[in-house]
Amino acid sequence: MSNTLLERIQAPGDVKLLAENDLPALCEEIRSFLIQSVSATGGHLSSNLGVVELTVALHRAMDLPQDKILFDVGHQCYTHKLLTGRRAGFAALRQKEGLSGFPNPKESDCDTFIAGHGSAALSTAIGIARAKKIKNEPGKVVVIVGDGAFTGGMVYEGMNNVSKLNNLVLILNDNKMSISKNVGQMANYLTKLRTDPKYFHAKAQMETVLERIPLMGDAMIRLLQGGKQLVRRGIYHSTMFEEMGFQYIGPVDGHDVTMLAQLLTNLREQYAPIFLHVVTQKGKGLKQAEENPGEFHAVSSIDLNHLTDPELSPKDSFSATFGSTLAELGNDEPRLCAITAAMKYGTGLNFFKHAHEDRFFDVGMAEEHAVSFAGGLASQGLLPVVAIYSTFFQRAYDQIIHDVNLMKLDVLFAVDRAGLVPGDGETHQGIYDTAVFSHLGIPVYAPANYAELQHWLTRLVREIRGPRAIRYARGGETTALAALGCSGALYDRVESRPGARVALVSYGAETEEIIAASDLLHIQGVAADSYKLTRLYPLPEDLCETLQGYDTILFAEDAILTGGIGQQLGYALRQTGWNGRYLLHAVDNTHLLHASVPELRRDQQLDAQSLANHLLRL
Question: Which pTM value belongs to this model?
Answer without folding.
Answer: 0.85
